[in-house]
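Reviewers of the previous submission asked for a worked example of the structure-prediction workflow described in the proposal, so we include one complete record here. The input consisted solely of the amino acid sequence. No template or homolog information was supplied to the procedure at any stage.
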Amino acid sequence: MLHRLYNWTLSLAQTQYALAALAIVAFVESSVFPIPPDILLIPLVIAAPHRAWLIAGVCTVASVLGGGLGYYIGSELFDLVGKPVLEFYHKLDDFDAFKERFNAYGHWAVLTAGVTPFPYKVITITSGATGLPLGQFLIWSLIARALRFFIVAALLWKFGAPIKEFIEKRLGLMFTLFIALLLGAFYLVRYL
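From that input alone, the workflow returned the following structure tokens.
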């Protein structure tokens, strides 16, 4: 079923409504949809590199707005909607322990989930459920999602289709390593 959903989402890139489809996918991916918007972002930028920045901008704004929906789900609809989404991603058991520490380091969680392959929707819902300040959540979401989508767009704009495989297979790992190094550096500066 997930493979069919992936193929259907990818097929949207071939329609005249591709940019609107990208916005919708980016919006719902931030709260409930399992397919990342990159699968539409990549073919759209390859097909129209002169629109790379517009495409990345639409993806970023829609994703952050969708993150706001995830935040709302966490803060207002956690028992009804949030718990089933966390159960789907097998994160409910860890939630209670995670919630206690979340607000102290929530901005790092938002940044990390926003740029790495970690499901961003888990963090959007958690941010709302734990009461992370909304303004802080939105600022870090905007930074993280812009970083992710504009880097993908820039790589595709500069190198075209040949970079597609790297983005699909290794960019998430590169973002993860970057965040780990960044957090490690802050730890060293703070505690050494």
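Residues 164-191 form the longest helix (28 residues). We consider this example representative of the routine output the project will generate in years two and three.
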